[in-house]
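Thread: Newbie trying to understand structure tokens

Hi all, I'm a second-year student working on a class project, and my supervisor (Dr. K.) asked me to get a predicted structure for one chain before our next meeting. I've only ever worked with sequences, so writing a 3D structure as a token string is new to me. If someone could post the tokens and maybe explain what I'm looking at, I'd be very grateful. Here's the chain:
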Amino acid sequence: MSGVVSVRGACLRGVEAFPVTVEVALSGGIPGIHLIGMPDSSVLEARQRIRNALRASGYKLPRQSVTVNLAPGDVRKTGTGLDLPIAVGILAASGQIPLNGLEDVLLVGELTLDGDVSPVKGEVAYQLLARELNVVIVGAWCEGHVPLEGIRSARIVNLANLNHGIAHGMYTYDDAPVPTHGLAPLLDYADVVGQEFAKRACAIAAAGELGLLMVGPPGAGKTMLAQRLPTILPPIDDRTKQEALRIHSVVGEPIEGILAGRRPFRSPHHSASSAGLLGGGRPVRPGEISLAHGGVLFLDELAEFPPNILDMLRQPTEEGVVRIVRVDGVYTFACRFQLVAASNPCPCGYLGDPEIGCKCSISAIERYRSRLSGPFMDRIDLVIDVSRPDPEEVLRGSEGLSSDEISQSVIRGRAFRAWRLQKRQGDGGESLALSAEAESTAIALAQRAHLSARGLDRLCRVARTLADMDESALVGESHVKEASMYRGDRRL
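---
Reply by user tm_fold:
Sure, no problem. This is what the structure looks like when written as tokens:
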């Protein structure tokens, strides 16, 4: 058969899928498959997989020179999702399957040696591309797949094996309930006893989308408090949910929790590299801060993180996006998250403990604290001391405020802030609206504590959040004074 056959494929670049036109031509010469168009090693390995898959599925590999061009030719192609379109293109070019309908499908899938079609990472990104191109997406989808809201117009076809052919084994997913099997039960703040002050700080952080650092000895409950923060955040909105789904899908992380409406919770180890935390690698992939998009990023043992990596977090924390610059362009990943951190007050963890003496030298304590730069600490709005709870309360199993009770104040504060901002929409932006007494108190606190301009702004933002939770249009003196209680030991 002469001529060139073109089929649609796709590759991932960052967290987005871009279309790839797979052009196949047969010609005389030494038999073999020749890939051009900047394929990487994973794409080049497709030749061996395709040879075995075609034979195992009952097809014949043409005894001709097979040239496969991946267009556009100036963009590097990565991943194993091009196996299926290349194989289908070869079958169509050799006349083993009909050409009818190929122009209306987007083929994505990895082939096994026995001809099965396996799922690939980035299912959500490929669905979004199929909707944009208005084509049917054909591939192997994970068991329990559920169409995403807003993407139901993209017809999804399941192809389990090349034996079925492009016209067999197809079905369209209808609206279905989100699978919740296998999800761990939600945690509750009622399980945390003796930490009501810390729970109040968590509520303020959730209501104002503020950064929180908890400082205390080992076993005080800092991790328990952080793990329960997603349970008091308001439901995730559709746009953020779609962005989070795409990021998790590209990295290959489970998406069932996000589909069920749960916000992500990420807790990277302090040995994480800059590429693992912020994103990078080859090919470039999102990091932990992007996987926390729409949820909570928890940095445990904060002072153990390399200082240079913590300083890299400053700009993404402010802007809500991280930009990875490479030779082939700029990769932009969303990373709007709730920053929560925990740290010991010193290397041994017992500095200031009323019962256990600290064994660290003064120089060791200073080295430990100097690992956190002033500019980074200025970006953390609330710093609180978390002490060990009373053993009697722990053994009695007494309960404090639950997640449901705390979430009510969070929802009330966010709703009042939204109303206040909408009301001031025509007045040129947001105003903190401090009363005269609150303003003088804030100035006095800033002078006494030698706050930077950013530090003073953080203090006022916390006070503004407290006023929103009280549904008060003006920030009062009591709000500023309470906000100053959440500054803790800023040297750490």
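A couple of things are worth pointing out once you decode it. The mean pLDDT is 87. Residues 189-401 form a domain with the Rossmann fold fold (CATH 3.40.50.300). Feel free to ask follow-ups in this thread.
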